[in-house]
Amino acid sequence: MLAAGEGKLVHLGSVGVRFMLGGDQTGGRFALVEHPLPARSLGAPVHTHHDEDEFSFVLQGEVQVQIGARVITAGEGTLITKPREVPHAFWNASDAPARVLELISPAGLENYFAAMAELFSSGPPDQERAADIRKRHNVDLDPASIPRLIAMYGLHL
């Protein structure tokens, strides 16, 4: 059992990652994390993971998600599928906080979040180390999407 408020919580910039279930607990089949997103915050810029599918369920508030070229707004109770090999991003452009529950299948991406959180813990991340972490976890990132999303939706990091 994991009670409300339990589980390690880390931050990657403004987005939080609350670790709920890891691959070590599920035989590698899936991982479960929660993403608290403050108002007007970028959750993740456009990125592609090549090994995992993500299923995001909006618990609170409203988030926007870009999947490929399509941008959707998802409110509480909405389930979003982000398949592997498809570039995607998510953010909270509203003036209220949001929370997203994310199922990752198979497990593994939670280890990426943990490694990036360690990198972010001492301030702005070293880009060379961040690139190495992405490579080890088979994740590609589109850095040009960061200023574009911030400007288009009035976000902060």
Describe this structure in words.
- With 157 residues, this protein is α+β, with helices and mostly antiparallel strands.
- The protein has a single domain, classed as Jelly Rolls (Sandwich), CATH 2.60.120.10.
- It contains 4 helices and 11 strands; from the N terminus they run ββαββββββββααβα.
- The strands form 2 sheets. A 6-stranded antiparallel beta sheet has the order 1-2-3-10-5-8.
- β6 and β7 form a beta hairpin.
- The longest helix is centred in the C-terminal third of the chain and has 12 residues.
- It starts with 8 loop residues before the first strand and ends with a helix.
- The mean pLDDT is 94.
Quick recap:
With 157 residues, the chain is of the alpha+beta class. It has four helices and eleven strands; from the N terminus they run ββαββββββββααβα. The radius of gyration is 14 Å and the shape is globular.
How many beta-strand segments? 11
Helix content: 10-25%
CATH architecture: Sandwich
What is the terminal-to-terminal distance?
A: 32 Å
Spatial extent as radius of gyration: 14 Å
Instruction: Supply the CATH class.
Output: Mainly Beta
Query: What fold name goes in the CATH topology slot?
Result: Jelly Rolls
Low-confidence runs: none
Note the main attributes of this structure.
11 strands, 22% helix, Jelly Rolls, alpha+beta
What is the topological layout?
Layout: E1 9-12, E2 15-21, H1 23-26, E3 31-37, E4 41-49, E5 53-60, E6 62-67, E7 70-75, E8 79-82, E9 88-92, E10 98-105, H2 109-120, H3 127-136, E11 139-141, H4 145-153
